[in-house]
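User: Hey, my collaborator sent me this sequence without any context and asked if I could get a structure. I don't really work with proteins. Can you help?
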Amino acid sequence: MALIAANAGVTRGAIQHHFGDRRIDLIVETCEHIISKRQAAYRANLAVLNDGARAGMKAAYRDPETWFLVEIWIASKSEAELRERIGDVMARVNDPVDADIQAAVKELGLYSIDFTTMKYLLRSLVRGMAIEFSSKPDGSLFDRVVDLAFDALRVFAKDRQK
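Assistant: No problem. I've predicted the 3D structure and written it out in structure-token form, which is a compact way to encode the shape of the chain:
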């Protein structure tokens, strides 16, 4: 809690006052804040398989918020209350934005692969890369893997449109 307080720029007492002894409340609130901020940016940019999305993914893994979300994702696999609460946040905050982006992608006829499938493919790759990156933090290798994934997905999407 001391580390969280120091990183947040508040006192431990302020955290205790606001969240009590419920660390899960603090974790869920923090996740919701980060996810809301990111989904607002996705909605504003509708970055699908373009250079903005590619650069965004590369930048994300240099961002401590991403590492926080990855660690929470891993922890939620073994903590039932955390898994349920994070699932609620995703359903309320993440899913409606994904639906908006999916509708825009479909309306524009951008790709034959739906947005949700692309997002889950990239998310799976990124989560696997996060594990690798945490033990071997080679930014240039990570960037090359991201480039390969985006290039392969772009080629695959174009082939499916033919």
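In plain terms: The CA atoms of residues 38 and 94 lie 9 Å apart. You can pass these tokens on to your collaborator as they are.
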